[in-house]
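Sorry, explain these tokens?

___
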Amino acid sequence: MGHSTTETQAWDLDFYTNFAARYHEHFCQDRVLGKVIRTFVSKLPASAQVIECGCGTGIAAANIVASGCHLHGIDQSEGMLAICRQRVPAGTFEVADMLQYSVPDSKYDGVVASLSLFELSKQETAAMMQKWHGWLRPGGLLLIGTWDPERQGVSPDRFDEDGCATKVPFEFMDHTVYNTLFTRGAWKNMLDKAGFEFVLSETDSFKPEGDCIVEERYYITAKKRTSGAV
């Protein structure tokens, strides 16, 4: 899970902690995410050092470790992490807010943020990109997993001049959540400003188990430019 800043989402931490097992049951069969992770890891050095921001119950983490990487994961929900630690004993994990978290510069070969950025504001998302740029070694890779708002049916008039739509309501496991979403062009612009080179993108449609909506996923891989941020 990600970071919540709005009053309407103040229940998020308890929600994800209390519903961790149910969440995992609904989302654990995400085979396309596994394929995306394996493609990402194939571009990293052998035994790469990877950090995952918002690792949840370990769905992506399990694939990262299985691909031979050394993984450290952070998440705000202890309930989520309890499942993650059981599923991925080879990784290391801690309770932390990604916005407040800090690591030494150039520590990691890869950064993963899969479906954990929806609750960040536009400014917070841009700030995280700057942090990830610092965490990565020269030429390091960033993987972002999000939704494609156009394919998800978000009205064009919800977006500002930068291609950002805020507080977009969706039903998620019997609750209404309010997501921040970006157009594909907005992602590319933010990555470029943060010092990243766009490498590739992948899309898929994922229907979780149970009474959940189809998620129109958009995955982005970007590379840290050796010249640094612009």
